[in-house]
Amino acid sequence: MPLTPDQQADIDTLRSTPAQTLRAVSPGMEAHLYTAHPVLDHGFVRVIDYMGDDAAICQAARVSYGKGTKSVSNDEGLIRYLMRHWHSTPFEMCEIKLHVKLPVFVARQWIRHRTANVNEYSARYSILDREFYIPAPDALAAQSTTNNQGRGEALSGDEAERVLRILRDDAMRCYDHYEAMISDEGQQGLARELARMNLPANIYTQWYWKVDLHNLLHFLRLRADAHAQYEIRVYADAICAIVADWVPAAYRAFEDYRMGGATLSSTALECVRRMLKGEEVTQENSGMSKGEWREFQGVLNDPA
Hints:
By secondary structure, this protein is an alpha+beta fold. The chain is built from 13 helices and seven strands. The chain is flat and about 80 Å long. It has helices at 5-16, 27-30, 54-65, 75-84, 104-110, 157-182, 192-195, 213-223, 230-246, 248-257, 266-276, 283-286, 290-301; strands spanning 36-39, 43-51, 95-103, 117-120, 141-143, 151-154, 204-212. β1 (36-39) and β2 (43-51) form a beta hairpin. It has a five-stranded antiparallel β-sheet.
C-alpha cells in the first residue's frame, strides 16, 4: 500500500485541524495539502508545505523591474511575459515541499536535479520495507534499436512472464537475505548500513524534496516530456497536476512556452520568417551548419 496506517492517520489529523494564517494561500494548493497522490504500484507524491502563488510571482517582478512592468495591465499577462522571455527570479519566490515515495533507481535519476533541498529516509538507521517496484506487463519493453537510452516495443507472452518472475524472485530473495543478515537472533547481526548494499534498485525509498518554482518547472520540462523514462515521468505528471492548481497562470504559461517546446536561434527564426514568405530555404542558404540544420529540420517535422 502507498501509505502506512500511521501516515494516513497523520494526514487525517492534519487535514481535520486547519489553522488560520495571514500569509497568502492558494486555494488550489490547499486542496492538495497532505493528500497522497498514488504513483506506480507503491509510490506517492504529497504536498507537505508551500509558499507563494501567482500573485507572489508578479509582486516580485514588479519590485525587481519597477516601472518597466507597468505597461502590463494584468497579472497573467505579466507572468506570460516573464515566462516568454526566460526570466527566472520571480518564479523563485514560490516554493514547494513534497513528500515522495519512489523506487531507488528513479531517485538516482531524480537527484541529478541538484537545485533542491533533499532529506531521504536513511537505511543506515531504519529498516526498509519489503516493497519493490514491479512493472505492469505493458511497461516491459525491449531495448530501443534507435535510442541507446530508451525503450522499444513491449515484451509479450512467455518472455514478459519470465522477466516479471525474475524481477519478483530476485527482489524477494535479496530482501530475505537482507533480513537474515541484520537479524540479531542467535547472532550479532550485520550493521544496517552494510546490509543495505544487498537490496535491489527497485526497492522503495522516501524523501522530502523542497524546490522553488523556477527549478521545479525545469524539472518538469525534462521529466514530464514524452521522451523521459516512464517511471519518472509518471511522478512528473502527478506533480504537473498539483502545480496547475497551485499557480494556474504560471502553469498555463509554462505549457505554452516551455513544455514540449524548442528554442530556436536567431538564424533559425529568420529561416522560419523566410519560409512563411514562401521562400525556399535550404541548408546551403540558411546560414546553419549541418548539425544545426538537422536539428532545425527535426523541430519542423516533429508531429507534436
